[in-house]
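Predict the holo structure. Ligand: ribose-5-phosphate.
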Amino acid sequence: MHVIGGTASTALAERISRELGNTPFGIPYTKRFPDGELYVRVGGRLEGDDVVVVQSTRTDQDLLELLLLEDAVREAGARRIFVVVPYFGYARQDRRFFPGEPVSARTMSRHVELDADAVITVDLHSPQTLTHFSKPAFEASGIPAIARLLRERPLDVLVSPDKGGVDRVRRMAQILDKPWFALEKKRIDSEHVELSMPATLPAAIEGKHLALIDDVITTGGTIVEAAKLLTKQGASAISAACTHGLFLRDAFERIKAVTDEIYSTDTLRNPAEKASVAPDIAQILVREARSLA
Ligand code: R5P
């Protein structure tokens, strides 16, 4: 098995190749033509081999690079192509909210799977997106990676910033054997939220170390408001953990100002990237390579 790391996911791709037992790992050559078009070339002997292409699609350029890499790998004679998209962009528009809109998550799924034999991603906005693939598609979870990290930290209570994250925080709480609760969240607009405490709590939080668990941190609005609320309630320390750390604009600094530690997995490059999903992705790759054989 060969692993190719696109420019958005080079470090994670190398970690995946190590998890697979130091399989050959390559970084494609990329450049821009004078008119701005992207050029990619993959090296190594890929003919007849299984190839894993790893590339998050946070930007449109990342997505284009992924599509070109898939074609390049197919042209190079790969036997099977496993496409790993650690952060799957456009997944939030998973249905038509208003007439005239696309179902962007479906459009992306159809294009990403074009040259793939199987697709693997991590913590999709909605698991429903998996149904848009016509090829085998799998979702790894970012929870074990964050749990491996939090296990070493002196935490007392886990908190989801909204009801949508209840399954996630419950699973994390089971692994870490900690109490948990979810805040009430009302979204005002794309950058502002209103949060309130639930009617009952499973444990006292005064003087305790609380860890906020979310799937994605984007503008940071949710985590900043949640941290302020929990501090007002008497928490002595607050950590914030997420699978996908986008940290738009000054989100990281704003969160840093109201928390004690910030953790994210390596699905995206960011200053809080402390946990790796490489073992969890490698496990699916090994399993599926065997089952598709
Ligand atoms: C919401 O459903 C998600 O789980 C996150 O809480 C949200 O997307 C975070 O966005 P932001 O960082 O912009 O508040």
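Residues 161-162, 164-165, 214-222 surround ribose-5-phosphate (CB under 6 Å). Residues 178 and 187 are 28 Å apart (CA to CA).
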